[in-house]
Amino acid sequence: MGTKSEAPWHTPVVESLRAGPGTRVSELDTNGTPGFEGDKALAERLLVERGAALSDLQGKLFANGRIGDPRSVLLILQGMDTAGKGGMVRHVIGHVDPQGVDHTAFGVPTAEEKRHHFLWRIVKALPRGGQLGVFDRSHYEDVLVARVRSLVPENVWRRRYDEINQFESEITATGTTLVKVAMFVSLDEQKKRLSERLERRDKYWKYDPSDVSERALWPQYQEAYQDMLDKTNTENAPWYVIPCDRKWYSRIAVTELLIDVFERLDLDWPDPTFDIEVEKRRLAKA
Amino acid sequence: MGTKSEAPWHTPVVESLRAGPGTRVSELDTNGTPGFEGDKALAERLLVERGAALSDLQGKLFANGRIGDPRSVLLILQGMDTAGKGGMVRHVIGHVDPQGVDHTAFGVPTAEEKRHHFLWRIVKALPRGGQLGVFDRSHYEDVLVARVRSLVPENVWRRRYDEINQFESEITATGTTLVKVAMFVSLDEQKKRLSERLERRDKYWKYDPSDVSERALWPQYQEAYQDMLDKTNTENAPWYVIPCDRKWYSRIAVTELLIDVFERLDLDWPDPTFDIEVEKRRLAKA
């Protein structure tokens, strides 16, 4: 979609969803569909078509990666439970050739991970050139749950914002384009989604009793998300704020965000690294 | 499909493609469609439907993995250049939720990899419980190109067959089901596919001049593939031999193979690890 708007979008997502000084987590309309003028049916049809466009663009990045282009794209999905991170991977990233996707889900840190700096496990999972990396949760857990649950002393999590900015500035400088997506659902919508997990045999495994306990800490989480957005929303690694009560909106919105990022990479198919006519003659005789 | 045949299959792939003492690499009909009675159009329609079935099955494995089930499935794709390994990943594995896929492409070993035992990089890439691992090339390179190109002395590659059998017997014993797929195209079909890479701007990057040089070693490769099939076709980690001149056949065939393997795991949605009624009451109040 680029930066100019095209139907059914009246405003490109890179503009309407970009976090800014005025972004207030506590006042977000999580049920909104910023910039979009269509309905669910249109969004779902569009997702197929735009998913294919995303896949084509990633194919070009992959091809360039194979001949040594160091560039990569890294989608960071951050959000409370039930915000739809898993569904985003399945229904958006699922359109892309698995060869070009490097997906990592970060859970509660293991004993070994706890013995290292919080960025240790992150660095190990960074995408190589040509890849679309996807982080389901990320180093931002270390200024969210780590803060709200006091897993580390305040002076430790407080300095992490600067460490993260420094880290992200280094990886963007070496060719990784970050797409940082903060996904928000309302408390009511979360209750509905958690209830569903208690009603369906194919969803029990997604239910974690501790998710209910976290609901009591909603205001503290909102504050932590607000600080995250305020302190790490840099020019090179901006945050996008996605209303997620309507899954069909959040999915098409993130698809458009990714397409926009890929288009700015101005990718083309790589030139041959060999003499085509020479190779045709070699092949004819082989 | 299980082990009984259903239209349009007159024989299940697990039977018709299973390597055996009579398998002769030099006599394979790479243009064949063993067991299948349909045409290309039917195969392509089927792929959508059966891809969705595969995805559902993998979803159950993933769910069980999340509650500690150590089982995984590992698809090993081995074949000469242009056999269609990449397309297999894109068009078969592409149906599966990226969260449940762990894909690794093994290239020429790096300097670091060369300093280690040949299984070092393989072990690091094994899928965790709940995952469908996919190896595009594998440890079998170490008895194929390593043998044909004399990258190591004969006594080294000769003992690798036993090492591989021992290794595979260990990983299958700890819960990984191996699906070993040997993909074969004819020399003529390979020439056609290499030519195409020299004709299309979007395919140049796939062309490697060394692929042409390897064609002169075709008989040696056939011998190496034959030995690989003869020496590592074990009960727990059998080989399947896939004719790949027709991509539509190879893709639906591997899809059916995977479905068969998943069905034998006899997966169900996991039981809840909590008291549903207690949680409903907690959630109502939260």
TrEMBL record, chains A, B:
<keyword id="KW-0418">Kinase</keyword>
<dbReference type="InterPro" id="IPR022300">
    <property type="entry name" value="PPK2-rel_1"/>
</dbReference>
<protein>
    <submittedName>
        <fullName>Polyphosphate kinase</fullName>
    </submittedName>
</protein>
<dbReference type="GO" id="GO:0016776">
    <property type="term" value="F:phosphotransferase activity, phosphate group as acceptor"/>
</dbReference>
<dbReference type="GO" id="GO:0016301">
    <property type="term" value="F:kinase activity"/>
</dbReference>
<dbReference type="GO" id="GO:0006797">
    <property type="term" value="P:polyphosphate metabolic process"/>
</dbReference>
<dbReference type="Pfam" id="PF03976">
    <property type="entry name" value="PPK2"/>
</dbReference>
<keyword id="KW-0808">Transferase</keyword>
<dbReference type="InterPro" id="IPR022488">
    <property type="entry name" value="PPK2-related"/>
</dbReference>
<dbReference type="InterPro" id="IPR027417">
    <property type="entry name" value="P-loop_NTPase"/>
</dbReference>
<feature type="domain" description="Polyphosphate kinase-2-related">
    <location>
        <begin position="50"/>
        <end position="262"/>
    </location>
</feature>
